[in-house]
Amino acid sequence: MWSWVLHRITGVAIFFFLLVHILDTALVRVSPEAYNAVIGTYQTPIMGLGEVALVGAIVFHAFNGLRIILIDFWSKGTRYQKAMFYVVIALWVITMLGFTPRHLINVFSH
Amino acid sequence: MSTAVLDEAAPAPTPEVIESFTVTLIVRRYNPEVDEQPKWVDYDVEMFATDRILDALHKIKWEQDGSLTFRRSCAHGICGSDAMRINGRNRLACKTLIKDLDISKPIYVEAIKGLPLEKDLIVDMDPFFESFREVQPFLIPSSKPGAGKERIQSVADRARFDDTTKCILCAACTSSCPIFWTDGQYFGPAAIVNAHRFIFDSRDDAAKVRLDILNDKEGVWRCRTTFNCTDACPRGIQVTQAIAEVKQAIMRGKP
Ligand code: FES
């Protein structure tokens, strides 16, 4: 249940990110100055924290997506779904432990 | 006559008292003739640890409020009439023991979700049985058995669909499914389980038909593997597993 709820929430969040991302990238066709202005606002610490959330959402969605593929295609998948969920959480924690400190140092050292 | 003599010195044996508890039940009541909205009503009942929620409901109905309405027939987990949401989880009232619940807090009892509420704990089961009927849950053989003979099936072939024969159609699984809550058209786990029971039966020849029916937009592909149905099933059927097997059979084009 919670794996599904998180998968939905992260999925919708990623969708909205992509929407904004396509819009801001498309700005470069409008005028490079406008593009630079918008991208410049992304360099703030608040956006840096937002990026942590974004990466967290993508990493969870990716790992849990693999889990769902295994549930659908591996004959023992449903039996080990709980264990696989804990593995997803563990992999997520490991990835985020690797990413977050490095990223935040970058964000706050500018 | 040594056994019949009462030893004066020994303390009189205390009759064994079985401890009972006051349990608070909060039941979601709804009377369509009076209420606009369902409302939560509390009842205090004296219960033993080995009593079931069904006994508590009986006590309320028989001793406190005769208007409380719920379904039950067998009272032993066979007929599947009394699936309800107990503390937020779908269970059979007749199989939920007081001792397995935390009675320091009130116990919340309400009707199963996703089906139209009729009164108190009773929902309209028609949409549920409609989906069940749609998957043709009966044997469709293409040949007749030899005169005076039975249809032979090996032990292994029988074991293939054993798990899904256990379904009692209580709707605990279907009404625990978040997809079914938002999309009442979805066949739901119970219908798929009962299709599985015949799709994988070696004596049946209409697997193709059923796989076609379930390949629908509202069929097995609606399943998002939330595993709520597997957790809810009072018979312990591996519901999500059965759905996954049907999905694979559709992709393969045969059971
Ligand atoms: S009353 Fe028959 S299953 Fe509970």
UniProtKB/TrEMBL annotation, chain A:
Keywords attached to this entry: Heme, Iron, Membrane, Metal-binding, Transmembrane, Transmembrane helix
Gene3D superfamilies: Fumarate reductase/succinate dehydrogenase, transmembrane subunit
Transmembrane domains' residue ranges: 12-32, 52-71, 83-100
Compartments in which it is found: Membrane
Any one GO MF annotation of this record: metal ion binding
Any one Gene Ontology BP term: tricarboxylic acid cycle
Statement: the UniProt record of this protein carries the keyword Heme: yes
Any single Gene Ontology cellular-component annotation: membrane
Main location: membrane
InterPro entries: SdhC_prok, SQR/QFR_C/D, Succ_DH_cytb556, SuccDH_FuR_B_TM-su
Highest taxon, organism lineage: Bacteria
UniProt cross-references to Pfam families, sorted A to Z: Sdh_cyt
Binding site for heme: H61
Record note on cofactor: The heme is bound between the two transmembrane subunits.
Keyword Methyltransferase: no
CDD domains the record matches: SQR_TypeA_SdhC_like
Cofactor(s) demanded: heme
Listed PANTHER family: SUCCINATE DEHYDROGENASE 2 MEMBRANE SUBUNIT SDHC, SUCCINATE DEHYDROGENASE HYDROPHOBIC MEMBRANE ANCHOR SUBUNIT
Record family assignment: Belongs to the cytochrome b560 family.
Record's protein name: Succinate dehydrogenase subunit C
UniProt organism field: Mycetocola miduiensis
TrEMBL record, chain B:
Domain of life of the organism encoding this protein: Bacteria
Cofactor: how and how many bound: Binds 1 [4Fe-4S] cluster.
Protein name: Fumarate reductase iron-sulfur subunit
EC numbers on record: 1.3.5.1
Domain 2Fe-2S ferredoxin-type as annotated: residue spans: 21-115
Domain 4Fe-4S ferredoxin-type, chain residue ranges per copy: 157-178
Reaction equations catalysed: a menaquinone + succinate = a menaquinol + fumarate
InterPro entries assigned to the protein according to its UniProt record, in alphabetical order: 2Fe-2S_ferredoxin-like_sf (IPR036010), 2Fe-2S_ferredoxin-type (IPR001041), 4Fe4S_Fe-S-bd (IPR017896), 4Fe4S_Fe_S_CS (IPR017900), Beta-grasp_dom_sf (IPR012675), Helical_ferredxn (IPR009051), SDH/FRD_Iron-Sulfur (IPR050573), Succ_DH/fum_Rdtase_Fe-S (IPR004489)
Pfam family, one: Fer4_8
Family: Belongs to the succinate dehydrogenase/fumarate reductase iron-sulfur protein family.
Names of the cofactor(s): [4Fe-4S] cluster; [2Fe-2S] cluster; [3Fe-4S] cluster
Keywords linked to the UniProt accession: 2Fe-2S, 3Fe-4S, 4Fe-4S, Iron, Iron-sulfur, Metal-binding, Oxidoreductase, Tricarboxylic acid cycle
GO terms for biological process, alphabetical: respiratory electron transport chain; tricarboxylic acid cycle
Pathway: Carbohydrate metabolism; tricarboxylic acid cycle
Keyword Cytoplasm: no
MF GO annotations: 2 iron, 2 sulfur cluster binding; 3 iron, 4 sulfur cluster binding; 4 iron, 4 sulfur cluster binding; electron transfer activity; metal ion binding; succinate dehydrogenase (quinone) activity
